[in-house]
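Q: For a teaching handout, I want to show students what a protein-ligand complex looks like in C-alpha cell form. Below are the inputs, and the small molecule is adenosine-5'-triphosphate. Please produce the holo structure.
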Amino acid sequence: MTVENLMDKLVSHCKANGFMFQSSEIYGGLNGFWDYGPLGVELKRNIKDAWWKDMYQSHNELACPPSAPSTYDMVGLDCTIIMHPQVWKCSGHYDLFHDFMVDCRKTKKRYRFDQLRGRWVSQGPQRIFVTTMAEPEQEQEDIARRALKFFNLRSKDIERLTFEERVLTLDKLDEADRAKVLGPDTDEIGSLTDPREFNLMFKTYVGALSGEEGAAFLRPETAQGIFVNFKNVVDSTRIRVPFGVAQVGKSFRNEITPRNFTFRSREFEQMEIEFFCHPSQSANWYQYWRNRRLQWYKDLGLDSDRLRLREHEQDELSHYSCGTADIEYAFPFLPPGEYGELEGIAHRGDFDLRSHSEGKLDPKKRPLEVELDEQGSPKHRGSGKDLTYRDDLTNERFIPHVIEPSAGADRATLAFLCQAYTEIQSSESNGKFESRVVMRLHPRIAPYKAAVLPLVKKDGMPEIAAEIYGALKKKFNVFYDEKSAIGKRYWRQDKIGTPYCITVDSQTLVDRTVTIRERDSMEQWRIGIDQVVAEIEKRVC
Ligand code: ATP
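A: Here is the structure, written as C-alpha cells, with adenosine-5'-triphosphate included.
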C-alpha cells in the first residue's frame, strides 16, 4: 500500500465510520478545522482521560513512579481561552510567535517559507527552482511535469532536463536565488514575495469596544493560564515544590498551511503540564519527563520503531528554552525516514514566572531582578506580582524552574488512528478473498470497550444479552447488536476498534456462560455471565 493510499484510506475510513468529519462540510468545509464524530469523540476523550489519569490522578506525594527524582504532587486547572492581552506580551507570543510566509503575486496564495519544498532543474544554462505542494509520493512527478511545461518541452523530452538530487525547502536557498523560484501554482518564475512575518494568534475584540483597546487573542497554548495562576495555586492548595499543574483545553493558531488531516489544524486541543521544581533539580526532572512521556505513548500502543525522542539543536530552541526534546512519530503521510512532532518537552527555566512578575513594582516589595532597557524602563510590563516561591522548611525563596511536557490531543489521536489501521485478508464463504479493516486500538482508548451480541434473535437470547449489556453499560461505553450474521457483526466491531465481543448462544441458555472474542487474536473463551463485568474491567482499564 503506498503512503498516499494509506492516508486516503484512513481519512475515508474515519469519515465513513464517524471518527472525523470536516468542519462545516455541507458548506464546502473550512480549511484547518475538524469535527469529531460519534466514535471520534469517544476516542479522543479516552485519550485525554488516560492522560489525565496517568499524569495527574495517579500522583501525589505518597505515590509516584519509582523513576521520579523525588515524590511530587499534581493538581489541575481549567483556564479561559481569552486572557488579558498583556499575558501574550510577557509570554513572548505577541512579538515572537510567528512563522515566515511568502505570497504568490500571481495567484494570491500563501505558503510557509520553511515548508515549501522543491528541486533545482536545469535545461542547458538555465537553472530554476521548481516548488511543489504535492504529497511526497507525487512530488517528483509534479516537479517534472511543471518543469517540462516551463521549458516548453514535451514528456518525451524529459532527458533534456537535469534534476538535482536534493529536495530543499525554500528557506534553504540563498537570497539571490529567490528570483529563480517557480511557485507551486504558477507558470512563471519570480512570482513569490520575500518572506514576511505572520503572527499565528487569532485576534478578537472583547465587549462593545471595537478599537484596539478591546483587542484580545485566542490562546495559542494552554500553558500561560497555568503560569499566571501560579500564586493562586500555591496559596489555595499549600502545595509544595516540586509539583505539576495539568490542563487540557483548546488552543488556536492561524496556521498558514494547515494540512495532513488533523496534524496541523487551526483549532486543536492540548494536554499540558507545567512542572515547577527547584533550579538545582531541573535537569533531573527534564530527563524524567522526557522518558515518562515517551513511555506513555508506547504503553498505549504506538510502535517503538515509529517513535523517537529528538533533542533540539541549539539554534532550534524557542526564546525561553534551555533545552527541548520532541517526541516524534513516523506518520504515514511523511516521506520514509521523516517524523512529525507529537509532543514537546521543554526546559523553560524561570522564563515564564520571571517574565509575568517583572514590571511596575514598588521596589521595596520587589524581590525579583527586573531587566531594564537603555532608557531604564522594564523591558516589558509584567504583572508586577511576586511570583517567587518560599520553601517553608528551608526558608529559601526562589523562582522555580519549569519543565513543560506539552502534548496535542489531536495529534495523539491521529497517531493512534494511524497505528491502529490494519487491513487483513479475510476468506468469504464463496472462497473469494477480500480485505477488511481492523482498528487495533488499545482497549483503554477504544471508543467501545465491548459489544454484546445475541447469536439469534429468539429463544430468550436477546433478553439475556440485554441484561449483560445493561450491567456493562453502567461502567463502560458498550454496543448492542442483534442484526445480521455473527461473523459480519464481529467484523463490524473490528472495523471500529471494539476490543471484545460477548456472544450469547445456545450454551448460555444451558449454563449461563457466554463467549468472549478478542479482536486482534480472534481468540475465544467462555466465562460465566456474572464474571463478564469484572473480566472486561480487568482488560480495558
Ligand atoms: P509544530 O512545530 O508542529 O508547529 P510546535 O512545536 O509549534 O509544533 P508546540 O508549541 O510545542 O508545537 O505545541 C505543543 C503540541 O501541541 C505539539 O507537540 C502538537 O502536538 C500540538 N500542536 C501544536 N500546533 C498544532 C496544530 N496546529 N495542530 C494540531 N496540534 C498542534
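A: Two things your students might notice: Confidence is low (pLDDT under 50) at residues 361-372. The CA atoms of residues 23 and 34 lie 5 Å apart.
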